[in-house]
Amino acid sequence: MTYIEVAQDRGVRTLALDSPANRNALSAGLVGELREALAGCAADPDVRAVVLTHTGNTFCAGADLKAPPDPAAFVALMRAVVELPKPVVARVTGHVRAGGLGLLGACDIAVAGPESTYAFTESRLGLAPAVISMPLLPRMDPRAAARYYLTGERFGPAEAARAGLLTESAQDVDKALDPILEGLRRASPGGLAASKALVTATVVEMFDRWTEDLSARSAALFASAEAKEGVTAFLERRDPQWVR
Question: Do the domain assignments include residue 162?
Fold first, then answer.
């Protein structure tokens, strides 16, 4: 079974998450295959930039709650996106939830269409957006992060752009991406790598400083009684016991 569709056009390699059975959730298989695909992009001189997109109406539903990936593997995947010496551009036309927002936040540029929606659902499951904070908090408006981390509300692309999750909200995603990808094609490989290192330096510092602590917090939360109740309630499509 493969989880990633790969295509290439004029120096831009497209990696499409393609796991429709679980709405492109972060399973061990998807995380591993995507990391391998990114390594291939890094090693290929014919790849100038990467577009990360999806099949179906969901970009990424977050962790696969039935078969979650090893937290260290997911952290390594996000860091691989941030440290890839080539720009990674997210193309989003569907829904993004929980850990999927960490993947989105790791990308250098993110453009989304009008049907996309977003939610940090962790607090409703007895969890918290722990490890995904490393790529997200340096990019997000602090007031927006506080609201959506705490409430788990769903919001749309215009608000996601205002909050710093997206570069642009567009009616026509591919039209909006045209000048971005053309600009990347015209840049030199060395110039792109050096420029990306400048704009990702703060995010890399977050990974250096917080990976161990936030990974431990995430593991403790997943093992808690609240999380077990929250995940069970979600899978059973009922409210958890703490809802009033």
Answer: yes
Residue type, 191: G
Q: For residues 154-174, b (16+ Cβ closer than 10 Å) or e, as one string?
A: ebebebbbebbbbbebbeebe
**What total number of domains does the chain contain?**
1
Question: Residue 179 falls within a domain, yes or no?
Answer: no
Q: Please enumerate in sequence order all residues whose Cβ is within 8 A of that of 237, keeping only pairs 6 or more positions apart, or say none.
A: none
Q: Can you name the residues that pair with 231 across neighbouring β-strands?
A: none
pLDDT digits 0-9 by tens, 140-181 = 999 999 999 999 999 999 999 999 999 999 999 999 999 999
* φ/ψ of residue 16, rounded to 5: -110, 120
For the entire predicted model, the pTM comes to 0.96
* Calculated CA dihedral for residues 39, 96, 164, 151, nearest 10 degrees: -130
Question: Which tens digit of pLDDT belongs to each residue from 94-130?
Answer: 999 999 999 999 999 999 999 999 999 999 999 999 9
Walk across the sheet containing 4-9 and list its strands: 4-9, 12-17, 49-54, 88-92, 109-112, 168-169
Phi, psi of 132, rounded to the nearest 5 degrees: -70, -10
Domain that includes residue 65, residue range: 1-172+189-244
**Short-list 176, 175, 150, CA closest to 161:** 176
CATH of the domain at 5: 3.90.226.10
Is residue 31 left, alpha or beta, with left meaning phi > 0 and alpha meaning psi from -120 to 50? alpha
Residues 11 and 46: their CA atoms lie apart, in Å, by 6
